[in-house]
Amino acid sequence: MFSKLKDPFLLLILVFAGIGYLLPVSGASAVVLGWVTKAAIFILFLGYGARLSGAEAWAGLKHWRLHCTILACTFVLFPLIGVGLLHLPWYGTELALGLAFLTLVPSTVQSSITFTSMAGGNVAGAIVSATASNLLGVVLTPLLVMAILPTTGAAPIGWGAFLAVMVQLLLPFVLGQCSRPWTAEFMTRHRARLKWLDQGVICLVVYAAFADFRVTGVRVGAGEFAVMLALCLVILAFMLLLTDQLAKWLRFPRDDRVAIVFCGTKKSLATGVPMATVLFAGQPVGLIVFPLMVFHMLQLVACSIIAQHWASRTDT
């Protein structure tokens, strides 16, 4: 069971988080690292845009009930939970921001599709919904952050941060889409190799975040960590149960229900960390994305078990 749940990318993220915390950079090196990180994020979203074909983006849009349900789970139900998390007294300000922020980021793409496929669900619907979540998230997540997080008085997110997201995330994605007449064949031919480039960029961003975590001298106590872990588990369990019951209540068939559960409960580390780096510039980004990292690990483990269980029931 453990060998099936291991994720090399997840292990790499943990390694780079540890290196960033143990071997941080400061001074001029930190400035250089900041600019390199911004350039890497630009390249990451340029690649996302160049790889997404128009056919993939529009293939399943006719199944609007499925996509609206998944997007509502991601950008309505989750943020409502985030509003409540801001007012709990059991942890510090940055962890409160991090817990609320994880509820605002888009769904994952690869793992949502993988788990839907494993469980025998609607893979085409999962592809369209997960992709739409990430496309819309580039705009919706900053707007949700501006609408919800300033109420704490600790995250002065304004239109400047929103514009920064548009320049660093949406602009390269659009440029990547425009480059497809010249780059589509290359992207398709080297898709497997480019995956390593994507993961390398995410690891660099994680390193920079946790290096900043160490330099700023912020600490997480054992009690705060235990509360955060418990809350992440409760949020994940609640959303898994809620999405399943919601899909049954709306009378979706079994394959669509699988897609709703696996796409509507995920939160993307690959998209969330770069967004946090831009939105929370000048703040302890490492501590803010820490709950998202914990939630990401928990969702991979839980959904792996659920997908294998549903797959075995389908085989039977």
TrEMBL record:
The chain crosses the membrane at residues 40-61, 68-90, 96-116, 123-149, 155-175, 196-213, 225-246, 287-307. Keywords: Membrane, Transmembrane, Transmembrane helix. GO terms for cellular component: plasma membrane. It comes from Arachnia propionica. This is Bile acid:sodium symporter. It holds the Pfam family SBF_like. The keyword Transmembrane applies. The keyword DNA damage does not apply.
